Amino acid sequence: MKAVGFDLIGTLCRAGTREDDCLHELFLYLGRNGMDVSFQQFVDRYNHIALKHLNTRKNTLREVNNRVWISETLRAFGLNIDEDDKIVCNAADAYFRPYVSKIDVPTYVVPILRDIRRDFKTGLITNFTYAPAVRQILEGNNLTELFDSIAISDEVGWRKPHPNIFKKFLHD
To answer: Cα separation of 108 and 141, whole Å?
Structure first.
């Protein structure tokens, strides 16, 4: 054995926020930037679009970035804003802000990773629809430097268990 790989959420850390908190932040940000619908209308449409992409991800193992979900939701309300538009990128950041801020990394994680790194290469391999949030979690909890390889499905384009994300993990 030459390397050890870890998942992020549920393995190295725990998520401490609710989906509603993230949706509320997203709704508030989009409301300040031109979306004029009720919270319930927004949540219903966003959840419908999210379910479509969750099914795509499950059936094909292709990752679909949250910015796609957001831009499709905006288009459903008549706002033609592309997923690479600054508003959509900032909206994704707003959505994940409460999530990132409430991540809990148990105190034993860093010492254990350091111990393992003495004898093995270490890597992170995680399914996550928005890589900047993963990077913020890692940097904010001093975890980045503990990995020789980081493979995030959003950056790779494929989710576990597709071989491509494992190839990325192994070749870094």
So the answer is: 12
Two tokens, residue 41? 């209308």
pLDDT tens, residue order, the chain (172 aa): 889 999 999 999 999 988 899 999 999 999 999 889 999 999 999 999 999 999 999 999 999 999 999 999 999 999 999 999 999 999 999 999 999 999 999 999 999 999 999 999 999 999 999 999 999 999 999 999 999 999 999 999 999 999 999 999 888 7
Measured distance CA(62)–CA(160) in Å, rounded:
9
- Bridge pairing between strands 121-126 and 149-152: parallel
pTM: 0.94
What's phi and psi for 13, nearest 5 deg? -150, 170
Asked if residue 121 lies in contact with residue 91, where contact means CB atoms within 8 angstroms, the answer is no
Q: d(Cα 169, Cα 92) in Å, to the nearest integer?
A: 25
